[in-house]
Design a protein that fits this description.
Phosphoenolpyruvate Carboxykinase, domain 3; alpha+beta; 3 domains; 15% strand; five-stranded antiparallel beta sheet; four-stranded mixed beta sheet; PARP catalytic domain-containing protein
């Protein structure tokens, strides 16, 4: 069992055969549980069982080839692939049932990992990227949204719990009367460039004591950011630069757009602002973006200030006399858009 487990861990770290989900964890993580969660597997036993089935069917293949099957790629030979697919369910099968298709226009195959905005395999991916996209297009490649209800049906009970927790967090943190009725919640799949930059920043900040239910790596917290959406959003982000919500979905948070909607550069320093209170964030726009923030070590203040963060601090928390808090982070790479809440 020990050798098999180590083989699985080693394969999970094989970067050349890895396409990491936007919401996953960084490569080379010491946490097997976090790694398997990034694969959308429920637990270690599920992942190990799947690895054993693939290994048994492809015993004469290399670890890299078996890892490719583990991720749902059709690589290494038709007979081995066909004989193993019936025993090894893939995320692609779930996405096909949910109607999610390859990101290349005209291809109706399911994505290799079941995620909206991904390709079915190498051929579609390479044919789509061979046109040498611009830097802006490359940074936004893969960014997409999917209704949270569709996401949870495709990916199981653990996604249902996560979707429900967003609604609960919104309702419980609303502190000015009754909260407005939520019309829809969309899961945001950030572009690979945005996700990679965020996870790299978390790694550079490092592990530490986390506040509340946050993650110990970089003290990550889930908070609300209010912004404006000017389009009739139906699941696909528009390309209007004036639609701030869609711009965030496509290219992440960008400090160059600071104060574009409110003309307010921030009373506690220039940066990206979020709040633990949904009611506070809602006051800044007509939609909310639920954001994962790499908070790190905070500089706590009560009064407005434009001073830069002290050395060794990664963010600033403003504890207002009203009881509402606001969090400011200076870096684009400290914000990962996760859900879009419409009213």
């Amino acid at each position: 069992m020990g050798e098999t487990r180590e083989a699985l861990f080693a394969a999970l770290g094989a970067k050349s055969f890895w396409r990491w989900p936007a919401e996953g964890f960084e490569l080379g993580s010491d946490s097997a549980k976090a790694t398997l969660r990034g694969l959308q597997l429920h637990d270690f036993r599920t992942g190990l069982d799947r690895w054993l089935k693939v290994s048994a069917k492809c015993a004469d293949r290399s670890t890299a080839t078996r890892m490719a099957y583990f991720h749902g790629f059709s690589r290494g030979g038709r007979s081995c692939r066909d004989s193993s697919t019936s025993a090894v369910p893939t995320a692609a099968a779930a996405s096909q049932a949910a109607g999610v298709t390859c990101a290349r226009p005209g291809c109706s195959k399911p994505p290799w990992n079941g995620a909206q905005g991904e390709y079915c395999g190498k051929s579609c991916r390479d044919s789509s990227t061979s046109a040498a996209p611009t830097a802006a297009a490359a940074s936004q490649a893969g960014a997409s949204c999917v209704p949270a209800t569709q996401q949870q049906k495709a990916q199981g009970p653990h996604r249902v719990r996560r979707f429900d927790s967003v609604k609960q967090q919104f309702q419980k943190s609303w502190n000015t009367g009754s909260p407005p009725q939520i019309r829809a919640i969309f899961k945001i799949h950030a572009s690979s460039a945005v996700a990679t930059a965020y996870h790299s920043k978390c790694s550079s900040i490092g592990p530490m004591a986390a506040h509340g239910n946050g993650s110990k790596l970089a003290n990550q917290q889930r908070r609300f950011h209010g912004t404006r959406q000017s389009c009739a959003f139906s699941g696909q982000p528009c390309t209007n630069p004036g639609c701030r919500a869609c711009s965030i979905i496509r290219g992440g948070f960008q400090i160059k757009h600071l104060s574009a909607n409110t003309q307010n550069r921030g009373a506690f320093g220039p940066g990206h602002y979020t709040s633990a209170k949904s009611s506070t964030a809602k006051g800044y726009g007509n939609v909310l973006i639920v954001t994962i923030v790499a908070v790190g070590i905070t500089d706590v203040v009560q009064d407005p200030t434009s001073a830069p963060l002290p050395p060794g601090r990664h963010s600033r928390v403003a504890n207002k006399s009203t009881g509402n808090d606001e969090l400011m982070v200076p870096g684009d790479d400290q914000m990962l858009p996760s859900y879009l809440v419409l009213f």
